[in-house]
Every structure is written in structure tokens, then in C-alpha cells.
Amino acid sequence: MKKLCFVCVLLLAFEGFSQSQNLELISDSLSVLYKEYKKTRKINIPTKAYSLAEKTKSDAFIKKTYIRFGIRSFFLEDIPNLSLSEQKLYRFFQKTKDSFALAKHYHYKALIFKIKVASDSCFYYYNKSLDLSAKLKDSLEVARRYLSMSNIQERERDYLGSENSVINGLRYAEPLNEIKFTSYLYINLGIALKYTQRFKEARKYYVKYLETQKKSKKKNFDVEYALFYNLTAKSYEAEFNYEKAMSFYKKALSIDSLAIKDPNKYRLSLEGFSYNNFKLGNKDIALKGYLKVLELRKKLIDKSSLVFSHSLLGEFYASTNQKSKAIFHTKKALALSRKFNNSERILENLFLLSKLVKGEKGRKYLEEHYRLNDSLFKRERAMKIQFSNIRYETEKKEKENSKLKVENEQKQLRIEKEQQQKTIGWLVAGGSFLFIAFGASVVSSRRKKLIFESKLQQVEAREKERQQIAKSLHDEVAGDIRILHKKLEQKKFLEESKELDRVKNNVRNLSHQLSSISFDEVSFKNQIINLVSDFFDANFTIKIKEINAVSSKKINSSIKRTLFLSIRESLQNIDKYADARNVILSFSCTKKIITLTIKDDGVGFDTNSLKTGIGLKNMKERVEEINGHFSVESAPKKGTKITIEIPNNGN
Question: Dihedrals φ, ψ of 635, to 5°?
Fold first, then answer.
């Protein structure tokens, strides 16, 4: 019997060893196939790889193979095999219920539409993949999807949308201390800020990119400096500060062997250096650089970059009255722009040709320029709305799910309440007055707590609605006004442009006033300190006492928000009307009550004779909405004291 057991153990061990060895052989074969596919682009290789992986019966191994060959299909722009990979991942999900595989399925569908340059569909599937990854708490995948979405929005000129996506991505990426995608997010944020003319802010994020890259300890780190110099130069160039821009391009070009280490960054640096020389009137230097970059680009497989060389040469020769050369290069640039669907360059070259070519042909170029410009404007607006709708529908669905969860919890609480009431009934039947009183107290307390929690949820829902309105005002209305403002400026309607700029600022101010306050990333204490710092003045002192009493995570965010908004409204009123030199904000917190007092030594007022202003009225309504108590004590020349008391749990 012992001998038989020993033989069985040996057989099992041999079988395990054999399976492990077989998996290793298949893994080696797949690596060979992957290298061959990367090199030869043969369309039948992924099918062979999937068939080989499926023989292992190892779910982890199969999924890894689908993902690995799928992403390589994207880089090779092999749509049939990328489509095969996303279909395989979906069937894998149906079989295993692996949500990560489903998220990748959506990711690869997005990549198919990216190759097809269908921005709206690409954005939609990125968003679906992001939503699943967020539910899986896969922060890195969420950050990567936000990065991809911001790239689409930037390409479609939705710069505010791109900025919003990047900020959301950084919330997931930064806590991971991840380098690669966090760096890319900083670059994208800088570019979005540059396009919205916040140049100093843009440069701050380029510095952040460089600081993050330094943690990677790369061998050729000077290449990252080249990118940093180019990005910074572009921001100064956008400000028309050509001297400063050129100084950064010089720094990039001075990097040892940049042309060998990173030819693309070298070409961009030389082109930027030449362009800024052209703008400063150094035309000989500019032409020499342009021609060198053109020759380097002609040797590339990727001919799309030739668009830029021919466009710049067309502009150069037009400025030096070399008309035939200008027309030659501009037509070349236009043809390439159309081939690679570069709308911005198509517009530029059509407009230049309308100036260079006389008669009917010139007029046709100009007409085409205006038609394309109008269609692009409509497309940009439609894309912004589409992107906003996709995000809005996702957020709406999340809200509906949250609402359903709350309703289920409330239903469960009602069931528990009914069970408690039945228990109390049995106690009544037993004749115990003491237990009856105790049970009634419990029911009353629970009822108050339910009502209080319901009110807090209503407040939270309203804050989210305000945030959505604020976002729409900021991203859509203000964005559209900015575009119209630029058009008026270009057409020299200066008075109308000035008035529209004032309207734009009013819309922005309104959006900021409507914006909600979040205590997830910035604590209540730091929010109050930031608020107080906005009112800093040598003749105006604000003291804060016992703020840590409200810093507890146990205190509901709606209560903190109400306190924050009350303080903000009070400080604004004091700053405008009270003529005060000192303000004291005092906090206290017991088990049941949170108290805030706001006291100033200003001119005061007669509370009986003066009608309550809208600010005080709004504060009072906010506080009473969550079962709080609001009172004002004031008299002429004796300052003002506002007291706010809010129950911590509804009792």
C-alpha cells in the first residue's frame, strides 16, 4: 500500500512538472511569434498565437496573450487583428466574468475607432472602459483612459474638456507615484493651458513633468530636457515672445548628440529655432534651418511631418516675394494636409494660396477656406457637446445607481423599523412600561436620523446639480463666448469684443460661485485656510479658533459644505460693508452639536430696523435645511456676531 502511494505521488509530481515545462515551451513559442509579427506584420500570426495560448487552458495565460497581441495590432494599424483581439476578450469575459477583460475589450474597440479617426466613437468606448476600471479600483487604467480621452479632446480643440480629463486622470495617477503616465498627463495639462492662454500655468506643469521624469533615473535623461525645452519654447512662442522662445530652442539644440539620440526632438528643435529666427527677421538662418529639416524628413517613412516643412517654406518664400517657390511649397503642404486630414494646416495653406494666386483660382481657394473654417467650427462645437453628453450620461447613470442604493438602504431601514415596532408591540403586550418608553425613544431617534440623512442627501444632490450647471457655464457657454470674442477681435469689432469679454468674465464668476466644494482631496481645515488667505490685508485680521473640531472624517461633507459657504458669505459681507479690522471664526463640536461663531468689530447694524439681505437669508436657509439653528446679534458701532448650530446626526 505504501509503495502504491509513493508511485502516485511521483506520477502527480511528474505530471505537474510536465505541465509547467509545456507552458514554458508555449511561452517561448509565443515570444517568437510576437517578434515575427512585430517585424513582418503578417496578418495570420495573431490567430496562430491565440490558438497556441488556448491549448494551455490557463485563463491568465490566454488573457495575457489576447491583450499583448491586441496592442501590437494597434501599433501596426492592423484593424482586422485588433478587432479579433477585442472579440476574443469579450468571449473570454462571457466565459470567466473577468471584468478586466471586458474593460480591455472596450479599450480595444476605442483603439479601432482611433485608427479610423472617429473621435466620438473612440471617446465613447474609452469612457466605457474607464467606467469599468474605476469600479475595479484599477487607478492606473483609469488614469490611462483619462489621458487618451484628453488627447482626443485636444485634437478636436475642446481644450477645456481636455484640461478637465487630465485633472481627473491626475487624481488617480499622482497617489500611485507612477512616472510614465503621470508625466504625460502633466504635458497634456500644460498644452491645454497653453491653448487657453494661461502660459505661466502651462510652464509650471512642464516643470512638474521634468521633475517627475527625474525619478525614473533614465540613462539618456538629457532627451527629456530636450522635450521640456521644446514645450517651454512653444509656450513663449504662443505669447509672441520670440527671443525667449529661441533661447529655449538653443538649449535643446546644444544637447550633446541630440540628432542621434532622438532625431524627432532634434528636428522639432531646429524647426522651432528657425521659425523664431524668421519671426525676428533673421531670414537667412531661418531658411537654412527649414531646408535642413525638410531633407531630414524626406528620409522618414512617416511623411506626415513634411506638411509642416512645406507650410513653413511656403510662408517664408511668400514673405520674400519668391512667388513661384511659395506656391510650389504651399500646394505641396495642402496636398499632404488633405492626405493626412490635418484640418489646421489645410486652412492655413488655403488662405496663403488665396493671397498668392490671382484671379478666379485665388477666389476659389478663399471660398474653400471659409467653407472649411465654418464646417470645422460646427464640428468642434458638436464634438464638445458629444463629449459632454457621454460624460454626463455616465455620471447620470452613476447617480441613478447611487439613488437606487440609497432607496434600498432606506427600504431596509423601514423594514428594520417595522421589526422594532413589532418588538415594541410585544413588549406592550407584556405590560412593561419601561420597555415601551425605551422602544418609543429608539424609534423616534431612528426616525429623526432618517429624516436628517434624507435632508443631507437632498443637499448633496443639489450641490451636484449646481456643479453640473457651473461646469456647463464654464466649459460650454464661456468656451463659446471666448470663440465668438476672438472672431470679433479678428474682425476689429473692438467695442463689441470688449463688452463680450465682460459677459464672459461674468459667466465665469457665476460658474465659480455655483461650483461645489469638495473635501475629498483638500481637507475642511485647508479649504478654510485657503479661503481666509484670499482676504489677506495688513489692516484686516482673521483669527481661526479650534478648527480641528470640524476636521473629523465622521462629520458629513454636507455639514462641512454648509459651514464653508456660510463663512465665505460672511467674510464677503464683512469685507464689503462692515468696515471691520478683526474677525474671529470659532468652532466647537460636542457629540450632538457643531457650533460656529463668526464675530467682527465692524460698524454693526440694527437687526430690528434693517431688512435681512439675500446673503444672510441664504445662510439661514442652508443651515435650517439640515435642522440647524441660525442667529445674528448686532448693534450700531458694536460689531456683529453670527452663531450657527448644526446637529451632528439629526437628533
Answer: -155, 150
